[in-house]
Amino acid sequence: MHYQLIHQGDTRTWAVVLETGDEANACLLAFAKAQQLSAAHLTAIGAFQRAMLGYFDWDTKAYKRNPVDEQVEVVSLIGDVALKGEEPKLHMHAVLGQSDGRALGGHLLEGHVRPTLEVIVTEAPAHLRRRHDPVSGLALIQPDKELP
Question: What is the pTM (predicted TM-score) of this model?
Fold first, then answer.
């Protein structure tokens, strides 16, 4: 993984480039920790040699794991970084294109890069926190303001 700071002002923006063999979640979480990100969003394009997508099953409160065991284009990857406790946590969804043009999508549990994943990470000016939601069992972003 290589990165370059491409904008610095009130917030920072980086280009992060992952290479063949890198696992997207592990690399981007390590990047978020190294940059001490508490709130950010990211977008990416590239390709995976294999991936694991998740679908949150409301009844079981667990992710159904859907393996993708082929080379695919990362048509779109979007996500965010927020704090869970004092540590950054990633939440990413991906749309993956197969060789015949069909698309697969879901929560990105794993993505093994080949040959590249080009990621733009933009820091948000406010801190976002994740808190345990007892209804879903998930750690969800909880903004500090509420409409009446």
Answer: 0.89
